[in-house]
């Protein structure tokens, strides 16, 4: 990468660390320094994920988040300030070196090559679940148990569509960006009624700073919830009057029923002028209402929708929170992305193995 802009100050870590906010944002990628101050708001993955790495080395995160690196580098070239002066401490990190070697080996073995038949089968079985939900109402009538059963099937279809859209959202299936974006819009918009842009904004931040308080949006935070060792202590210091957190696993179920996530989908998309998200999100309702409204009427269609969303939300949140609660939750330590990911995975699987052993014993 050649230098495209000139700066007066030497590009040392002492200088780079002072440029760590949205109005003055520098990051280091593969030994080169980039000024993203004016460009961050146009970042397809959201501006906050860039802000998290202000004044830091983002090489490993960049490598993991971008498949078509040659295309991305074309956009990065005008933002390059020059080569980092002095030694980069992370370059000598043995875990980082091992990771790069492992990644290169996996790429040569073709382990990152997707199986399109798998995704076709996943899409087909998701659509079959949705079809079963409709046929349940079509032939079962509009009784309460029928509505509940159809709601369970719809929630299951929603969750399966969620796993499917996840891979498209990570740009890990197709070789071209437009195909990834199109199928992400289809699977998260048409099949779920959600927003591609909102999901990426949240999920990329989660992967950028996993389990970091106030940065990982997957962590349910105070004042309603606390997890880990740090949150409870900090919340207790703020006020003697706190919620009964020892019962949060119970009131969590009730509170989450009233979280207006899907209304925020439209607000986010409109505010960011992501009209394609609005269109695909609305397409879900353009299919859902004509299918179920004639069979159930207005009141029971609303009931069906609430059952679907309530079960889907609980399912989704239990899955995401269970992957967090057994791991360390803390403040920003400016650790290498790779070190943080390896450490989290180690703790996660150590926890799974320990729990399995205790169950067997």
UniProtKB/TrEMBL annotation:
The chain crosses the membrane at residues 116-139, 182-199, 250-270, 282-306. Residues 8-85 form the Cytochrome b5 heme-binding domain. It comes from the Eukaryota. Coiled coil: none annotated. GO terms for biological process: unsaturated fatty acid biosynthetic process. GO terms for cellular component: membrane. This is FADS1 protein. It comes from Branchiostoma lanceolatum (Common lancelet).
């Amino acid at each position: 990468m050649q230098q495209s802009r000139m700066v007066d100050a030497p590009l040392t870590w002492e200088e780079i660390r002072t440029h760590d906010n949205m109005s003055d944002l520098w990051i280091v990628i593969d030994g080169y320094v980039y000024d993203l101050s004016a460009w961050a708001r146009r970042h397809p993955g959201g501006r906050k994920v860039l802000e998290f790495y202000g004044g830091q080395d983002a090489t490993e995160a960049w490598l993991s988040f971008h498949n078509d690196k040659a295309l991305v580098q074309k956009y990065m070239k005008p933002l390059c300030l020059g080569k980092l002066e002095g030694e980069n401490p992370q370059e000598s990190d043995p875990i980082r070196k091992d990771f790069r070697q492992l990644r290169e080996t996996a790429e040569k073995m073709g382990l990152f090559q997707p199986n399109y038949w798998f995704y076709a089968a996943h899409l087909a079985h998701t659509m079959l679940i949705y079809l079963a939900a409709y046929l349940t109402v079509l032939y079962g009538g509009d009784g309460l148990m029928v509505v509940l059963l159809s709601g369970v099937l719809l929630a299951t279809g929603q969750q399966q569509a969620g796993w499917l859209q996840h891979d498209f959202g990570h740009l890990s299936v197709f070789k071209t960006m437009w195909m990834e974006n199109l199928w992400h819009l289809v699977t998260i918009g048409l099949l779920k009624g959600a927003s591609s842009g909102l999901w990426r904004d949240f999920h990329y931040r989660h992967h950028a700073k996993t389990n970091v308080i106030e940065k990982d949006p997957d962590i349910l935070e105070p004042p309603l919830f606390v997890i880990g060792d740090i949150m409870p202590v900090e919340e207790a210091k703020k006020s003697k009057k706190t919620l009964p957190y020892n019962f949060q696993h119970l009131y969590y179920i009730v509170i989450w029923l009233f979280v207006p996530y899907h209304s925020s989908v439209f607000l986010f998309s409109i505010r960011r002028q992501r009209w394609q998200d609005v269109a695909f999100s609305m397409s879900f309702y353009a299919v859902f209402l004509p299918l179920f409204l004639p069979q159930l009427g207005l009141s029971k269609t609303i009931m069906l929708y609430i059952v679907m969303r309530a079960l889907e939300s609980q399912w989704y949140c239990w899955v995401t929170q269970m992957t967090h609660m057994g791991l360390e939750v803390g403040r920003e330590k400016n650790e290498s992305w790779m070190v943080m990911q390896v450490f989290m995975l180690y703790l996660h699987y150590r926890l799974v193995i320990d729990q399995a052993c205790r169950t067997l014993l």
